[in-house]
Amino acid sequence: MRALALVCTLNPSPARSSSHHLAEQVMAEFARHDVRGEIVRVADHDVRPGVEVDMGDGDAWPAIREKMLAADILLIATPIWLGHPSSVCQRVLERLNAESSETDDEGRPLVYGKVGAVAVVGNEDGAHKVSADLFQGLDDVGFSLAPGAVTYWVGEAMRGTDYQDLDETPETVASTTRTLAANAVHLARLLADAPYPAS
Protein backbone atom coordinates (compact mmCIF):
# COMPACT_ATOMS: atom_id res chain seq x y z
CA MET A 1 0.00 0.00 0.00
CA ARG A 2 0.99 3.59 -0.54
CA ALA A 3 0.42 6.88 1.27
CA LEU A 4 0.81 10.46 0.14
CA ALA A 5 1.31 13.35 2.57
CA LEU A 6 0.47 16.84 1.38
CA VAL A 7 2.18 19.32 3.68
CA CYS A 8 0.41 22.68 3.66
CA THR A 9 2.94 24.87 5.44
CA LEU A 10 3.17 28.37 4.01
CA ASN A 11 6.95 28.00 3.73
CA PRO A 12 8.57 26.40 0.67
CA SER A 13 11.60 24.15 1.07
CA PRO A 14 14.20 24.23 2.49
CA ALA A 15 12.59 26.19 5.34
CA ARG A 16 11.94 24.12 8.46
CA SER A 17 8.31 23.29 9.13
CA SER A 18 6.48 21.81 12.09
CA SER A 19 3.75 20.54 9.75
CA HIS A 20 6.40 18.74 7.71
CA HIS A 21 7.95 17.33 10.88
CA LEU A 22 4.65 15.85 12.07
CA ALA A 23 3.92 14.50 8.58
CA GLU A 24 7.29 12.73 8.66
CA GLN A 25 6.36 11.12 11.97
CA VAL A 26 3.04 9.90 10.57
CA MET A 27 4.76 8.50 7.47
CA ALA A 28 7.26 6.68 9.71
CA GLU A 29 4.33 5.05 11.51
CA PHE A 30 2.78 4.09 8.17
CA ALA A 31 6.09 2.44 7.24
CA ARG A 32 5.83 0.26 10.36
CA HIS A 33 2.68 -1.15 8.74
CA ASP A 34 4.46 -1.75 5.41
CA VAL A 35 2.93 1.32 3.81
CA ARG A 36 5.34 3.37 1.72
CA GLY A 37 4.88 6.76 0.14
CA GLU A 38 6.14 10.28 -0.13
CA ILE A 39 5.72 13.75 1.26
CA VAL A 40 4.91 16.65 -1.04
CA ARG A 41 5.28 20.19 0.28
CA VAL A 42 2.57 21.98 -1.68
CA ALA A 43 4.24 25.41 -1.42
CA ASP A 44 7.12 24.03 -3.50
CA HIS A 45 4.76 23.69 -6.48
CA ASP A 46 2.73 26.09 -8.60
CA VAL A 47 -0.73 24.87 -7.61
CA ARG A 48 -3.17 27.24 -9.23
CA PRO A 49 -6.38 28.46 -7.56
CA GLY A 50 -9.56 26.85 -8.83
CA VAL A 51 -11.83 23.86 -8.53
CA GLU A 52 -10.85 21.97 -11.68
CA VAL A 53 -8.60 18.94 -12.15
CA ASP A 54 -6.30 21.01 -14.38
CA MET A 55 -6.24 24.80 -14.37
CA GLY A 56 -3.78 24.86 -17.30
CA ASP A 57 -0.89 27.26 -17.85
CA GLY A 58 1.72 25.29 -15.92
CA ASP A 59 -0.58 24.18 -13.10
CA ALA A 60 1.28 21.69 -10.88
CA TRP A 61 -1.84 20.09 -9.38
CA PRO A 62 -2.35 17.43 -12.10
CA ALA A 63 1.01 15.81 -11.27
CA ILE A 64 0.25 15.91 -7.52
CA ARG A 65 -3.21 14.52 -8.25
CA GLU A 66 -1.68 11.54 -10.06
CA LYS A 67 0.31 10.75 -6.92
CA MET A 68 -2.88 11.05 -4.87
CA LEU A 69 -4.81 8.72 -7.17
CA ALA A 70 -1.98 6.17 -6.94
CA ALA A 71 -2.07 6.26 -3.11
CA ASP A 72 -4.37 4.37 -0.76
CA ILE A 73 -4.08 6.95 2.03
CA LEU A 74 -3.95 10.74 1.79
CA LEU A 75 -2.57 12.68 4.76
CA ILE A 76 -3.09 16.43 4.83
CA ALA A 77 -0.81 18.26 7.28
CA THR A 78 -1.49 21.91 8.06
CA PRO A 79 -0.59 24.60 10.54
CA ILE A 80 -3.26 26.64 12.29
CA TRP A 81 -3.40 30.30 11.29
CA LEU A 82 -5.99 32.56 12.93
CA GLY A 83 -7.92 29.48 13.98
CA HIS A 84 -8.14 28.05 10.45
CA PRO A 85 -6.20 25.70 8.16
CA SER A 86 -3.51 27.48 6.15
CA SER A 87 -4.40 29.15 2.85
CA VAL A 88 -2.33 26.46 1.11
CA CYS A 89 -4.49 23.81 2.77
CA GLN A 90 -7.66 25.57 1.66
CA ARG A 91 -6.35 25.58 -1.90
CA VAL A 92 -5.75 21.82 -1.68
CA LEU A 93 -9.36 21.33 -0.53
CA GLU A 94 -10.58 23.48 -3.40
CA ARG A 95 -8.61 21.45 -5.91
CA LEU A 96 -9.86 18.20 -4.36
CA ASN A 97 -13.38 19.49 -4.94
CA ALA A 98 -13.00 18.49 -8.59
CA GLU A 99 -12.96 14.83 -7.52
CA SER A 100 -16.70 14.91 -6.80
CA SER A 101 -17.31 14.91 -10.57
CA GLU A 102 -14.53 12.45 -11.52
CA THR A 103 -16.01 8.94 -11.50
CA ASP A 104 -15.15 5.39 -12.43
CA ASP A 105 -17.08 3.17 -14.87
CA GLU A 106 -19.66 2.42 -12.17
CA GLY A 107 -20.27 6.05 -11.26
CA ARG A 108 -18.25 6.11 -8.06
CA PRO A 109 -15.88 9.02 -7.32
CA LEU A 110 -12.29 8.00 -8.08
CA VAL A 111 -11.29 8.57 -4.47
CA TYR A 112 -13.86 6.11 -3.12
CA GLY A 113 -11.86 3.44 -1.35
CA LYS A 114 -9.13 5.88 -0.35
CA VAL A 115 -8.59 6.86 3.27
CA GLY A 116 -8.08 10.42 4.48
CA ALA A 117 -6.11 11.50 7.55
CA VAL A 118 -5.11 14.83 9.07
CA ALA A 119 -2.15 16.27 11.01
CA VAL A 120 -2.37 19.72 12.63
CA VAL A 121 0.16 21.90 14.45
CA GLY A 122 -0.02 25.37 15.94
CA ASN A 123 0.60 27.72 18.82
CA GLU A 124 -3.05 28.50 19.40
CA ASP A 125 -6.32 26.73 19.99
CA GLY A 126 -8.18 25.35 17.01
CA ALA A 127 -6.93 21.83 16.24
CA HIS A 128 -10.41 20.33 16.60
CA LYS A 129 -11.95 23.02 14.42
CA VAL A 130 -9.25 22.67 11.77
CA SER A 131 -9.53 18.89 11.70
CA ALA A 132 -13.33 19.17 11.48
CA ASP A 133 -12.98 21.43 8.42
CA LEU A 134 -10.66 18.96 6.75
CA PHE A 135 -12.75 15.93 7.72
CA GLN A 136 -15.84 17.44 6.11
CA GLY A 137 -13.95 18.37 2.95
CA LEU A 138 -12.37 14.94 2.61
CA ASP A 139 -15.70 13.23 3.23
CA ASP A 140 -17.51 15.46 0.73
CA VAL A 141 -15.28 14.36 -2.14
CA GLY A 142 -15.33 10.65 -1.22
CA PHE A 143 -12.50 9.83 1.17
CA SER A 144 -13.19 7.52 4.11
CA LEU A 145 -12.09 8.37 7.65
CA ALA A 146 -10.98 5.82 10.22
CA PRO A 147 -11.53 6.38 13.95
CA GLY A 148 -8.82 8.69 15.30
CA ALA A 149 -8.12 10.19 11.87
CA VAL A 150 -6.18 13.15 13.25
CA THR A 151 -2.99 13.71 15.19
CA TYR A 152 -2.10 17.16 16.45
CA TRP A 153 0.04 19.29 18.70
CA VAL A 154 -0.97 22.73 19.94
CA GLY A 155 1.48 24.79 21.95
CA GLU A 156 0.69 27.42 24.52
CA ALA A 157 -1.18 30.36 23.04
CA MET A 158 0.81 33.50 22.21
CA ARG A 159 4.13 31.74 22.79
CA GLY A 160 6.89 31.01 20.30
CA THR A 161 7.53 27.30 20.83
CA ASP A 162 7.25 25.25 17.64
CA TYR A 163 6.55 21.54 17.50
CA GLN A 164 9.72 20.94 15.50
CA ASP A 165 11.77 22.51 18.30
CA LEU A 166 10.60 20.24 21.11
CA ASP A 167 13.34 18.15 22.70
CA GLU A 168 11.13 15.07 22.38
CA THR A 169 7.70 14.20 21.07
CA PRO A 170 5.07 14.23 23.82
CA GLU A 171 3.80 10.71 24.44
CA THR A 172 0.20 11.80 23.91
CA VAL A 173 1.09 12.99 20.40
CA ALA A 174 3.18 9.89 19.66
CA SER A 175 0.41 7.52 20.77
CA THR A 176 -2.21 9.45 18.80
CA THR A 177 0.02 9.29 15.72
CA ARG A 178 0.41 5.53 16.17
CA THR A 179 -3.38 5.14 16.42
CA LEU A 180 -3.98 7.27 13.33
CA ALA A 181 -1.55 5.15 11.30
CA ALA A 182 -2.82 1.78 12.53
CA ASN A 183 -6.48 2.65 11.96
CA ALA A 184 -5.95 4.33 8.59
CA VAL A 185 -3.98 1.36 7.26
CA HIS A 186 -6.54 -1.10 8.64
CA LEU A 187 -9.39 0.73 6.91
CA ALA A 188 -7.45 1.09 3.65
CA ARG A 189 -6.84 -2.66 3.57
CA LEU A 190 -10.51 -3.40 4.26
CA LEU A 191 -11.58 -1.10 1.45
CA ALA A 192 -9.05 -2.63 -0.94
CA ASP A 193 -10.54 -6.06 -0.28
CA ALA A 194 -14.19 -4.92 -0.27
CA PRO A 195 -14.79 -1.78 -2.40
CA TYR A 196 -17.87 0.35 -1.94
CA PRO A 197 -20.81 -0.68 -4.12
CA ALA A 198 -21.88 1.39 -7.09
CA SER A 199 -24.70 3.76 -6.16
TrEMBL record:
Pfam family, one: FMN_red
Signal sequence region: none
GO molecular function, one term: oxidoreductase activity
Residues covered by the NADPH-dependent FMN reductase-like domain: 1-147
Record's protein name: NAD(P)H-dependent oxidoreductase
Lineage, broadest ranks: Bacteria, Bacillati, Actinomycetota, Actinomycetes, Kitasatosporales
